[in-house]
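User: For a reading group we're discussing how well predicted structures match intuition. Take Leptin receptor gene-related protein. Before you show the prediction, I'll give you the sequence so everyone sees exactly what went in.
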Amino acid sequence: PVAVAALVALSFSGAIGLTFLMLGCALEYYGVYWPLFVLIFYFICPIPHFIAKRVSDDSDAASSACRELAYFFTTGIIVSAFGFPIILARVEAIKWGACGLVLAGNAVIFLTILGFFLVFGRGDDFSWEQW
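Assistant: Thanks. Here is the predicted 3D structure of Leptin receptor gene-related protein, as structure tokens, for the group to look at:
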């Protein structure tokens, strides 16, 4: 029940984030679909975490080099996702309003991804690995 409610809330927030992204692309005033390349960052964002979790099995250690490297790469991916629409707006490939909508969508999507890992990544009896 609690996990199902969390899953519904996360899917709702993900839909809101993708709606912001699509509004930044599909509104007639903006009409350019270059910001959709941000979807690549959404898909590759959790990959360093998955690799670090697979490689480092000892969860006793407070910090490991593999986990810290995964945090570093994940941070680089997230900063790149926020920088990409700003660069597109700066070179006038998209309008600044579209940039703002894409940045709002980025914030919502990355908070949704973080929420997913906080809710389902604990490793207790009910975890995201079951999905």
